[in-house]
Amino acid sequence: MTANNSLVVGIGNEFRRDDGVGLILAERLKARQIPALDVVLHHGEGTGLMALWQGRSLAVVIDAVSSGKPAGALHVIDAVRDSVPPDLILFSSHAFGLAEAVEMARSLDQLPKQLWIVGVEGQDFKHGQELSRDVACALDLALETVLTLITSPRADRAA
User: Fold this and answer.
1) Is the Cβ–Cβ distance between 121 and 71 less than 8 Å?
2) Whole-angstrom Cα distance, residue 13 to residue 93?
3) Cβ-Cβ contacts under 8 Å for 140 (sequence gap 6 or more)
4) What's the rounded Cα separation, in Å, for the pair 157 and 88?
5) CB–CB of 99/89 below 8 Å?
6) What is the pLDDT of residues 104-157, one digit of tens each?
7) Which of 23, 31, 73, 84 has the fewest other C-beta atoms within 10 Å?
8) CA 7 to CA 111: how far, in whole Å?
9) 149, 117 in Cβ contact below 8 A?
């Protein structure tokens, strides 16, 4: 791990179609080689996520979600200020996943100064590697959203 204080974590399963969207977006960010930014691909297990963002000033986690909104819709959650909405399903094969990790870190006072969750509404979580059309069409907007989150100063979060 480098000394960078900002982190983007793409989580998901590349073999469950739209569940791979977080991984794809993280790969696109990694290819940009943004200075002072660590980009990590992760399976979504909660204690591993907590370890990754511990001591960070900024962390953005990208994942596929399901809430009943149209496929490709974006959800941007300020996880320092707000809990993960209960109607937002984060796909995970782990009993202790992203939502649980956020709340555990909150209770232990171990959240980063800024923690954002960017959820991309999925449509198809069956076996396969290709994203559904609407999720694939949302990639550019999702990437721009993440770039805005990692480059915009947030004075209200300053130490």
Assistant:
1) yes
2) 9
3) none
4) 25
5) no
6) 999 999 999 999 999 999 999 999 999 999 999 999 999 999 999 998 866 344
7) 31
8) 13
9) no
State how far the Cα of 98 lies from the Cα of 46, in Å rounded to an integer. 5
pLDDT in tens, 57-114: 999 999 999 999 999 999 999 999 998 887 777 665 556 788 889 999 999 999 999 9
So where are the chain's domains?
A: 6-124+140-151
Question: Integer distance in angstroms from the first to the last C-alpha of the chain?
Answer: 23
Q: How far apart are CA 43 and CA 75, in angstroms?
A: 20
The Cα 43–Cα 14 span in angstroms is 10
pTM of the model: 0.89
At 84 the pLDDT is 84
- Alpha-carbon dihedral angle through residues 102, 103, 104, 107, given to the nearest 10 degrees: 120
Q: Is 6-124+140-151 assigned to CATH 1.10.357.10?
A: no
Q: Tokens representing 7?
A: 């982190």
